[in-house]
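Q: Can I see a sequence and its folded structure?
A: Here is a first one.
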Amino acid sequence: MASGGSAIRGSRVGSGPMGEQDRGYQTERIAVSYWDAIGNQTVRYFAANLPDAEIPELIDSPQSGLPAGRDKENPPSLVKLEPYKTHLAYVKERRTEEEATELLNEALEQLRARRGRVATN
């Protein structure tokens, strides 16, 4: 038979009386509202003695995952995602042969100019 310590069954060792003052519930708080682009409102609570500079202007909205701001009339805009491009779209964006030749010649001239400067110094 195993014998345990002197703790009463169901109690936590080291736990003592813990009131609201120990948990921080009596701290004065202010409510700050944030709105996202869809119109969801999120309320966050901050300590009243916290300077305004430490209260964030933007947060991520838990309802939508979008950025939310403190200005109700002008919330942050939706994130603009670019559509997926196919390989053919990238091929169409490639430069023409003449442009590629010009770029290559400019790069070679710059390299030759640098090599010439190093050799003369």
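Q: Show me another, different protein.
A: A second, unrelated one:
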Amino acid sequence: MTLDEYNGFCASLPATTHVVQWGGAHVWKVGGKVFAIAGWDEGKLPFVTFKCSHTAFEILKEQPGLRPAPYLASRGMSWIQRQTAESMDDESLKAYLRESHRLVVLKLTRKARLALGPLPV
């Protein structure tokens, strides 16, 4: 997945916002909360980081091309970083990005969810 494909996909999800921060990372948020981050490794395809369930985290962290997300996972959060498509193709990555978006929406306050309008939950 190229950076343009990543940004286009994340932009297609409801009520998302985009910011470039943390040294050039493309960060996508819903309700002001991060659900996806794309960064670079020496100019190659982006590493994509996303939130997942605890169960998915335990399974994915052992797969080739995936790892616990630096910084986030070390603080006990269930975030995975895809470095290569070796064990997660782009379609699967999109499914995990959708789920990350959903998980973040579920953690928003009722007031915040209502302010965003209708969102899939």
